[in-house]
């Protein structure tokens, strides 16, 4: 970093987060597409996260479920697919080609090789056989439009064949060809997750053919993805970028150079923003509160989180694998956690009282009422449970 790089402090970083992540009331969005565009990607490992993340950022939270269903399954303006770090996200459809070329290709090659290796160890059929099954499955999916793995196996019975995975290891298991092959096809960008079985909180889903897209050069796609993310989340450090994308540091540096990113000074050291984003950003008009779901893309947006989440709160708010649970936010920082009880009540607890007084409690209570109103009779249990969420849920 050269001398004279502008310093961006914690207060301004929180201001950028409030406005660009559509969390301050004045910045809320009108549609799920606007939310996804602002955040680049909505975590989809837990299906409920997509809806809860959207609802927290919409002007009209009552339209959350209908609007998100429309975007995902009718208009297909959002697509749920594998992306960074081999994680399932919901992306704006216009970014699917960028995500596939920038993050998917390398992971896809590794996943297919692992499947063939595991099948060979188990004495299962070879690559040519697997290719036949794959082509038959994709053809069936084209005819059916959307289908579960079981429905596809009715069209192509070889998908039901089973093989032992990791024989003799503590984690030994039995996989069907369908389970592993559909996962590989998802990472390869050939299929995507479709409408779930049951409600919007269901983890059981159908598969659909992926939307067609042009193949992009990986380096161009990496630059484009990083430009989108840094616009939403800048400033960020190299470590943040490497963690979020799952790329090598050489790929991160090449992409930063390709988009002409500007270096700035952060408390952690050198950070980066997109070209033209160095000027100061004013904060929201008033302090704001939000209840964000487990795995929310804001809470999981950076590797270095001390500027919005005190380290002493992590044991209560994260599980053992590093997945964040439901969080309470006050004016740009995490101050506590929340949960839904079996009777539907939204309960919350402020864990960090510094600067979160009576005004914060009043605002958080209002957000809890807002969330309970649009959830109605739906009950949501996070896929990855954390100590404070389990305690509050009772």
From TrEMBL:
One matching Pfam family: AlkZ-like
InterPro entries registered for this protein in UniProt: AlkZ-like
Protein name as annotated: Winged helix DNA-binding domain-containing protein
Organism (species): Streptomyces phaeofaciens
């Amino acid at each position: 970093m050269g001398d004279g790089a502008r310093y961006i402090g914690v207060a301004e970083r929180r201001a950028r987060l409030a406005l660009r992540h559509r969390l301050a009331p004045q910045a809320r969005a009108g549609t799920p597409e606007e939310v996804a565009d602002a955040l680049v990607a909505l975590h989809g490992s837990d299906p409920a996260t997509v809806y809860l993340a959207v609802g927290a950022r919409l002007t009209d939270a009552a339209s959350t479920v209908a609007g998100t269903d429309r975007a995902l399954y009718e208009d297909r303006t959002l697509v749920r697919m594998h992306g960074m770090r081999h994680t399932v996200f919901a992306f704006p459809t216009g970014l699917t080609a960028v995500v596939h070329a920038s993050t998917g290709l390398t992971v896809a090659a590794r996943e297919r090789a692992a499947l063939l290796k595991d099948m060979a160890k188990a004495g299962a059929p070879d690559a040519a056989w697997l290719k036949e099954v794959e082509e038959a499955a994709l053809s069936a999916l084209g005819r059916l439009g959307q289908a579960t793995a079981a429905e596809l196996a009715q069209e192509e019975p070889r998908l039901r064949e089973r093989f032992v995975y990791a024989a003799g290891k503590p984690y030994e298991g039995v996989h069907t060809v369908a389970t592993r092959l559909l996962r590989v096809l998802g990472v390869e960008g050939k299929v995507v997750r479709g409408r779930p079985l049951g409600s919007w909180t269901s983890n059981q889903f159908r598969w659909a053919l992926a939307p067609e897209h042009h193949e992009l050069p990986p380096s161009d796609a990496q630059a484009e993805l990083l430009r989108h993310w840094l616009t939403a989340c800048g400033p960020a450090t190299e470590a943040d970028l490497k963690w979020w994308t799952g790329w090598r540091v050489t790929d991160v540096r090449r992409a930063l150079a390709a988009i002409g990113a500007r270096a700035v000074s952060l408390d952690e050291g050198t950070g980066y923003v997109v070209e033209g984003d160095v000027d100061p950003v004013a904060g929201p008009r008033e302090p704001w509160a939000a209840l964000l779901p487990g795995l929310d893309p804001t809470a999981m947006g950076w590797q270095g989180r001390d500027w919005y989440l005190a380290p002493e709160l992590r044991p209560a708010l994260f599980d053992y694998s590093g997945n964040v649970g439901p969080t309470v936010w006050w004016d740009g920082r995490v101050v506590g956690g929340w949960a839904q009880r079996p009777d539907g009540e939204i309960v919350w607890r402020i864990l960090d009282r510094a600067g979160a007084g009576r005004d914060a409690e009043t605002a958080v209570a209002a957000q809890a009422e807002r969330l309970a109103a649009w959830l109605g009779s739906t009950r949501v249990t996070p896929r990855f449970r954390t100590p404070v969420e389990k305690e509050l849920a009772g």
